[in-house]
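Protein modeling request. Please complete all fields; requests missing the sequence field cannot be processed.
Requester role: graduate student
Desired output: 3D structure, token encoding
Chains: 1
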Amino acid sequence: MWDPIQNEDGKIEGTFTFLRVNHECNVAFGFDPVWNLSTAKLTFQNNVKMKLSVIVGVIHMSIGIIAKGTNAVYFRWWAVLFCEVITGLIILLGLFGWMDLLIYAKWFKRLDIEDKTIINQ
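Delivered output (121 residues):
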């Protein structure tokens, strides 16, 4: 429910109430609709867009390294395969792939916002 009031400066003020069906706090891609009411909306959206761009970048770079690996196998460049492709994938996925995995885990982990034991941990 929303009861908006516009003040003299043109800013919208009011009482905002979002009713929940259940206590699970999990929204698609981290976009909680309550952020639309926040003054930090732009900062939050830029944060999510930055995370998405890192995920797309890691996928893009992984595809490039895998393509180089297929060329190395086709032309029998074993030194390139072991020294550049495999080590490149280990480094890329070890650093940035792990970060992407943590981003996914944060987005898709179900969180009960009414659970009081989370605060005590």
